[in-house]
Design a protein that fits this description.
The structure is a single chain. The protein has 137 residues and is α+β, with helices and mostly antiparallel strands. The chain is 22% helix and 36% strand. A hairpin with a 5-residue loop joins strand 4 and strand 5.
Length: 137
């Protein structure tokens, strides 16, 4: 856990990683990328939090999403990154990329057809004294 990390640094790094993952999706299939401007803080433990956000990539109609998610999985596994895979309650293939210190990314078919969603969580950090962890960050 990185006590010296600020929530602003955690957010900036995590959003950059979302876009790095999105860049692995074949460009000829991508019609839009929508990165949420704000996220929220969730507890890691009694004293630390993580920033949570997401990016949704819309792909062309008819694009098969599972092979794209599996290609992203293979990319990170080839780099020695810890990746787990399973199926969602909707039977969609999804992966979780675990970069340690609480930092992780879930990549799966989105909530609407032709979408890939990247849900992110930053490394854990300590908020400054007096900062309330509720609301948008």
């Amino acid at each position: 856990m990185k006590a010296e990390l600020t929530w602003q640094e955690a957010k900036a790094h995590t959003q950059a990683m979302e876009l790095e993952i999105a860049a692995l999706i074949p460009k000829d299939t991508v019609t839009s990328i929508d990165q949420k401007k704000t996220g929220m803080l969730l507890s890691c433990n009694r004293t630390q939090h993580k920033w949570k956000g997401s990016t949704t990539i819309t792909v062309a109609e008819g694009t098969k999403i599972e092979p794209i998610v599996k290609d992203i999985e293979a990319h990170y596994r080839a780099n020695g990154t810890k990746v787990s895979a399973d199926r969602s309650v909707n039977d969609n293939y999804r992966i979780q990329i675990d970069l340690g210190a609480g930092e992780n990314y879930i990549v799966a078919e989105g909530l609407a057809p032709n979408e890939i969603r990247i849900a992110s969580g930053s490394a854990c950090f300590t908020l400054p004294e007096g900062v309330y962890p509720g609301g948008d960050f």
